[in-house]
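Review form for a predicted model. The reviewer records the input and the model, then writes brief findings.
Reviewer: anonymous (R2)
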Amino acid sequence: MKTQLDCLPCFLNMALNGIRKACPGQEDVHEAVIREWAKGFAEADFNESPPSIAGRLFRMTSKHIGNVDIFKAQKDASNKRVLELLPNITATVHGSTDPLLAAMGVSIIGNYMDCALIEQFDWEAELGHLEKGLDKSLFASFIDKVKVQKSLLILGDNAGEIGLDTILTGLLQADGVKVTYAVRGTNILNDATFEDAKIVGMSDICEVITSGVDTPGTVLDRCSPEFKERLKKSPVVLSKGQGNFESLWGVMDDVYYAFKVKCPVVANITGHPMKTSLFCIEN
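Model under review:
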């Protein structure tokens, strides 16, 4: 999807939130970063996706603060909270009349763990509505395809969320499906990396690879050649999170998307209101 004017205030909020956490009290650094981002807006190509532009702007930030994982504390807190709740959530999913559908609902709810928006949404409050609003017919056809192919590539999104994704991954693996889970290539926002996959146990239950990207979404021209080859050969791809949706919608065919609609721009594109748990495929 292309970047729109409404994306720019969101970019600035992410930058200011992150830089204040990374450099508390250093107003000169905060101002320098925001001014540089504002300058970047003037030079940006809005034909690029929001994650593509955001990734480049965050790389510019490193010259002011070094290679700092700005959202590490938040990522650690999200992973910790998910691990605390995971036994009860897993039991609820396994006790559902349709565990796979319930597991997908959990994974989508976890997409609320977004550094730019986490204070606006209460993901734990939604855990009592795991299957609310999901397209059950489309999900059933997705599961059928996955079971026939016995293979699924999941494009992961946020820390914390990746812990909830272990439920769906575990169920599919137990059903004979080889799941491969892709994480970011470097620290960007609160997106999941190899470290997060290890912390929540994802690397214990399936193959974890990196897309190689330094962007908050699977921006194809920032992916490693090895990952692009894996992506090309994968018979079924599940894209988790709004950042991956923004990167791939209108760019790649036959991708299943699972995420929370978290902004007016995406709500307008999808035709679904904010806070919708969306499982869809681009026609």
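Findings: DSSP finds twelve helices and six strands in the chain.
Further findings: The mean pLDDT is 91.
Recommendation: see findings above.
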